[in-house]
Amino acid sequence: MKYEDLKIPACKNFSGYKPCYPFYNCLTEGCKEAGDSGNLGTKILIISLDALGNVLLNTSILPSLKKKYPVSTVHWITQPSAVPILSNNDYIDKVFSWNDEDRMIVRNMKYDVLLNSDKSVYACSFADEVSASEKFGFLTNGSGKIIPANSRAMYNYFMGIDDNLKFRENKRSGSEIIHETFGLDYSRSEYVFAFSESELDFIEKYKAQISYDPSKVYAGFNTGCSNLFPNKKMTVEQHIELIRRLAVHDNLKLVLLGGKEDTERNLQIYEGIGKELQGAVIYTPTNLGLRNGACFMNICDIVITGDSFGMHLAIALRKFVIAWFGLSCWNEIDLYERGEKLYPEGLECAPCWKKQCPYNLECIEMIDLGKITELVRKYSLVKTIITQKN
User: Fold this and answer.
1) What value does the mean pLDDT of the chain take?
2) Regarding beta strands 339-342 and 320-324, do their DSSP bridges make them parallel or antiparallel, or are they unpaired?
3) Can you tell me whether residue 236 is helix, strand or coil?
């Protein structure tokens, strides 16, 4: 076969480096993946780099994307810390990490559609460089200013530069807004997060380790958040008080959840509740990584959390979520009828998205621990009744 005669298969599996199947030559014997499953189809690049919670929220576009482009190849580039979020996702063909090597590869590919969700100069500048027939979301102009790439991105664009729209007027969820930004039909599709077989096995082994009792209600406390916005956190003292109120109920098991940045905080909470109540609390490891953290959260029926990646993960795992808000925008969060949002009604300064509070963190002081206790008890009562009937 001559160089001029090469016909490179338009197949997702063919790399040009080695056979797709042992001892099978696709170029001379024909493609084994003929049909939609192996067809590259519409080549799509998603740029969603920053904030783990946003990356997870943006997976809600994937079912809608496949409806619009049923025969397609989907690539996603994100920060290294967010790569595990996208693992084992059947909608995504390839995840690229935000590093020099992967950016070089992506720059040298040609896409049909580019979707950039991030309003950051580096994400938008990269979107400018990528070759794509259509671009949605955000780019930069010749002066390095962020601009909308398409008309349906205008609402999202103004959400960033108009505080009144973002903090007062907007009633739409982040998922609905990103669907509009990307020109996708919105049908309230949910986040996409899937465990591998080995992770499901890990979950079952952990349940055995803790003597998991399916007749009980497991309430998880996601105690922390990103260090970027530390004022999203409930205080250690509030957590201790809330756990003390709930630990007296025999049908409840309480679970401490968190990442490596929450290790010291969770230890303070665990020690603060006192030895007499520690038997009612399961202290999960905080240093085993994002995917294992999701495994621990998966044993819970309820997750009590602030606006954080842990909240988005609980939504993705379809838990009953009790979420409190202060500085962040509660209207942008969709709990899909599985939970309740608590926010400081009547507090003029909230939401604000400030890293430092000029007041006394009234929004955190106003968290209604009694309301959270009541919601947990109501949910646990309903589950107990259903379990007894079955």
Assistant:
1) 94
2) parallel
3) helix
pLDDT at position 37 over 70? no
Positive or negative: CA dihedral 354, 359, 360, 363:
negative
Average pLDDT estimate for 5-34: 85
Rg (CA), the chain: 23
- Per-residue pLDDT of 136-147, as tens digits, reads 999 999 999 999
Q: What Å distances lie between residue 120 and 48, 127, 144, 229, CA to CA?
A: 10, 11, 10, 18
DSSP per-residue codes, 18-85: S-SSTT--HHHH--TTTTTTTB--EEEEEE--S-HHHHHHHGGGHHHHHHH-SSEEEEEEE-GGGGGG
Please indicate, yes or no, whether residues 147 and 209 belong to a single structural domain of this protein: no
pLDDT 10s digits, 128-175: 999 999 999 999 999 999 999 999 999 999 999 999 999 999 999 999
7 Cβ partners below 8 Å, 6+ apart? 27
Number of separate domains in the chain: 3
pLDDT > 80? residue 327: yes
pLDDT score at 6:
83
3-state helix, strand, coil in the chain (%, to 5): 40, 15, 40
- The span from the CA of 97 to the CA of 204, in Å, is 31
* 170-197 core/surface letters (b: 16 or more CB in 10 A; e: else): bebbbbbbbbbbbbbebeebebbbebee
Give CA separation, 135 vs 33, 129, 139, 194, 319, in Å.
29, 11, 9, 28, 35
User: How many Cα atoms are found within 13 Å in the side-chain-facing hemisphere of 37?
Assistant: 5
> 56 with 33, same domain?
no
Domain that holds residue 166: 40-181
- Tell me which long-range contacts 80-85 makes (C-beta under 8 A, separation of at least 24): 81/52, 81/290, 82/48, 82/49, 82/52, 82/55, 84/289, 84/290, 84/291, 85/52, 85/55, 85/56, 85/59, 85/193, 85/290
Q: Are 236 and 270 spatial neighbours (Cβ–Cβ below 8 Å)?
A: no
With a cut of 70, say whether residue 66 has pLDDT above it.
yes
| CA distance to 40, 117, 284, per residue, from 266 (Å) | 47, 33, 9
Task: For residues 204 and 164, state if they share a domain.
Answer: no
